Amino acid sequence: MTRILHLSDPHFGTEQQAVMTALMQLVEEQRPTLALLSGDITQRARPDQFRRARLFMEQLGIPMLAVPGNHDMPLFNPFKRLLRPYGHYQDNFAADLEPLLETERLLVIGVNSSRADRHKNGELTAEQIERVENRLRQASARQLRLVMQHHPVRAVESSDRSNLLIGGEAVVPRWVDAGLDLLLAGHIHLPYVRPLNGQTSGRQAWTAQAGTALSSRVRGDIPNSVNLIEHSTDGPFHACSVARWDYADTSRSFRLYSHTDLALDRSA
């Protein structure tokens, strides 16, 4: 069994101590073997915010892969945003903005969908799209194939359509045809799981959005939330699910909100 913690948009600088404590408790109880952090680690990309974020992630005590979000670049310092937009992120997390993790049962491809020349919208280059597509085609049938980026590719609210990855309607079917199982993202502080369709193969994949893990910047009545992804194989058969855990003020803990079983297509 592989168990992965997917968290997003903690926005350090607006983090809440009670929620942080509850998340550490959830990790201790559920014992995920890996954490995936899909951007907006800080509120204003300040060095102290990144340091606090790094310290907290280290306290979780599990390996972590991260990609930056639009909030992880300086907003009010145009020179730093132009010359070294991810400087503080790289000083505290990783020099590689697009990390890759591969094991016998897992492939995680990190994609940096943020852009220094855009305030919040996400976009990918042709080179990024092709790199991910080629890497997915090389994956083993035994592997759970994940792509993680900051910006969403499916909207459930009409108001979020403007937040979708620019050009995503052309990108996603290519990745699904290449073998994508699950695309992880954040940005809009609204958790959900939705199917994604290929274009030529007839394959289906999935996307899982995470809410804001720790920030006071919750969306409406949606509380802080994280996802726990579980995956196992029995010969050619795969079992995969995404469980959404929401923070409850009454108990000061994360509680299971929903559980979604995912059918994984091995036609590619």
Written account of the structure:
The chain has 268 residues and is an alpha/beta fold. Helix content is 24%, strand content 28%. The strands form 2 sheets. It has a 6-stranded mixed β-sheet with strand order 3-2-1-10-11-12. Strands 4-5-6-7-9-8 form a 6-stranded mixed β-sheet. The model has no long low-confidence stretch (mean pLDDT 95). It comes from Pseudomonas abyssi. GO terms for molecular function: hydrolase activity; metal ion binding. This is Calcineurin-like phosphoesterase domain-containing protein.
List the keywords.
alpha/beta, 6 helices
What's the CATH topology name? Purple Acid Phosphatase, chain A, domain 2
**Order of strands across the widest beta sheet?**
3-2-1-10-11-12
CATH architecture: 4-Layer Sandwich
Number of helices: 6
End-to-end C-alpha gap: 22 Å
> How confident overall, as mean pLDDT?
95
Helix content: 10-25%
GO molecular function: hydrolase activity; metal ion binding
Family: Belongs to the cyclic nucleotide phosphodiesterase class-III family.
Keywords: Hydrolase, Iron, Metal-binding
Pfam families: Metallophos
Short précis:
The protein has six helices and twelve strands.
Q: Layout of SSEs?
A:
Layout: E1 2-7, H1 17-30, E2 34-38, H2 47-60, E3 64-67, H3 78-83, H4 87-92, E4 100-102, E5 106-110, H5 126-137, E6 144-148, H6 168-178, E7 182-185, E8 192-197, E9 204-209, E10 225-234, E11 237-248, E12 253-262
Parallel strand pairs: 1-2, 2-3, 5-6, 6-7, 7-9
Antiparallel strand pairs: 1-10, 4-5, 8-9, 10-11, 11-12
